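Sequence and structure are no longer studied apart. To make this concrete, we show below a single chain and its fold as tokens.
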Amino acid sequence: MNISKDKGSSKLWIAGAMLAAVCATAMANDEASQLVVQYTDLRLSNSHDVGVLYRRIERAAATVCGTDSARYLEAKVAAKKCTDQAIAQAVSSINSPMLTNQYLVKTGAAPKNETVASLR
């Protein structure tokens, strides 16, 4: 799986590969595909636009990696792993604090705020 960002451009390439051995209907070789996620129409300082970009990344990753609706458990696990990795790499390559925060919240990796109260 490869993620790359064109220099000076607001395009993100998401590429992934599913192992052929995972699914009985897969080809004999690995099948790789890639999609371009464009975000020139979005402002990454705007929370709504960040949400739009995150959904675009999710859809692109699901398209490239396949969905987890496969009939075989191994295929579901592989698709989920591929999708998760593609999203993580895409978010990292864009390097936007708001997008990273969106990713952390969506994945449950955001730091938990602890509230400590005391009675005196």
